[in-house]
Write a structure and sequence with these properties.
The chain is α+β, with helices and mostly antiparallel strands. Helices cover about 25% and strands about 25% of the residues. The strands form two sheets. The protein has a six-stranded mixed beta sheet with strand order 3-4-5-8-6-7, with helices on one face. α2 runs parallel beside α3.
Length: about 170
């Protein structure tokens, strides 16, 4: 019986300590929230896309997948995986820069190749863009849209508020 009384008291105290706010039948139990910002693309061809170019949560940026379309010509570069990889990473750099970040603050990459046969050539260029800070990475092959040979999405942190990255 004592155990039941103690449990009842503990549950009552827990429930009463939660801040509850009722807005049109939505109950929120929380006091502070981080900013959640959905950023649209600055590129005209992506203005009506059904996704955000980047989503910012606090100090973290989640970028949509980028392919190697040159923003000036709106075309994929000729020459295969090498030029497409470079342009894809340059596109990522541009999006990161517009949100106060850079490649040194990338913590995770997801790479989609149109064929695993391109892995070695892709990896050679990827290493040049990430010479010391090596983000966690997943790489796989799948069919890609617009005839692209590569698509990369990244998760990065904003450069402000962080010390220089260290490599251990």
């Amino acid at each position: 019986m004592k155990l039941l009384n103690v449990l009842t008291l503990a549950i009552t105290m827990l429930i009463s300590s939660c801040t509850m706010k009722n807005d049109t039948n939505n109950t929120q139990i929380s006091t502070e929230k981080e900013d959640l910002i959905f950023h649209s693309s600055k590129l005209e061809r992506k203005k009506n896309a059904p996704f955000s170019d980047a989503v910012e949560v606090g100090n973290t940026l989640y970028l949509a997948g980028q392919v190697g379309i040159n923003p000036e010509t709106n075309k994929l570069p000729e020459g295969g995986i090498g030029p497409e990889t470079r342009q894809t990473l340059e596109n990522i750099k541009a999006v990161l820069a517009s949100h106060d970040s850079d490649l040194e603050h990338v913590v995770k990459c997801t790479v989609i190749l149109s064929t695993t046969d391109d892995f070695t050539a892709f990896n050679k260029i990827f290493r040049k863009y990430f010479p010391k800070n090596k983000p966690a990475r997943t790489t796989f092959a799948a069919d890609l849209l617009v005839g692209a040979k590569i698509e990369i999405d990244v998760i990065a942190v904003k450069a402000d508020g962080f010390k220089d990255a260290r490599v251990n």
